[in-house]
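Researcher: Here's my situation. A collaborator sent me these components and asked whether they could plausibly form a single complex. I don't have experimental data yet, so a predicted model of the whole assembly would be a useful starting point for our discussion.
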Amino acid sequence: MTASAPAKVILFGEHFVVYGEPAVVLAIDKRAYATAQLRKDQRIYINSTDLRVSGTFKGERFQAEKGGSKARLKLEPIKNAVQQVLERAERKTGVNVKINSDIPVSAGLGSSAAVATSSIVAVSNLLGIELSRDQIFYMAYESERLVHGTPSGIDPAISTYGGALQFQREKDFISLNVQTNIPLVVGNTRVERSTGELVANVRRIKEHYPSIIDPIIGVGGKIALDAVEALKKGDLFTVGELMNINHALLCAIGVSHEALARLVYAAREGGALGAKLTGGGGGGCMIALAEAGKLKRVVKAIEQVGGTAFVAKKTNQGARIEH
Ligand code: PMV
């Protein structure tokens, strides 16, 4: 049984979303695939080709097959996702789960959420239990909490539902009916970073300078709401300008990086309507919005300053069964 779930880009509102502001997120056409098989014993074996780790969980015990001492930490969230499904199914069985993914890891594209979501869908279907999308989301969110302490839930939400969402903590997500194409280039700095550390650092400066940082966070939310209106109207020029302003606010709260700045400026000079970092920042990825005819030029401009880049399309396909 194989299932898949999409990667995401945050168009607007990363970090500000942690403090209750709205964000806009898009599922893109890169996916993680999980294949699940029953085992005769009660162990959970997980093999992730992309993380280059594999191993077997037997209760609380873990035996690494590949990846040595780092394997357990990397596989624990996937095991947690699988275990939640086994518990709900009330089945005393083991499973093998194999993960393959097109999504760059640790880059702000929601790879860990897509892996957890696809694993939940694959294992639940293997066991013949039907989960609603909301149940899939909550299980993936629980597993995501192991990756970084206080996630907003934006990654498991978009991976589960697909499409474009307006997301706000502790509110229902609003599915955005965006008719226009949103032609994007994703540029990867290939600088690895930890979202958890970046989120913690923003919290630190917010606590230290509340009268300065709180208004920035509020403006971040306002940009996201204006962007929703511009997206609904298909006004890509405004969306691009709002992306540039959003990027500046993210610089102000300390989550940009020299490599991100290089890629963002290269994309703008290459003809993008707007460019910003996406996700946690501190390295990882940036996105550029460009008219369809200019996408290739923007890809080249990013590559010329040392990034890797690809054109990304929005997908309405959330988590799904493959076969
Ligand atoms: O770097 P990513 O893809 O995990 O995105 C993180 C988004 C943040 O807003 C920075 C954190 C969160 O939990 O929403």
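Model: Some features of this prediction you could bring to your collaborator: Residues 47 and 189 are 27 Å apart (CA to CA). Residues 14-15, 17-18, 108, 110, 151-152, 154-155, 195, 199, 279-280 surround PMV (CB under 6 Å).
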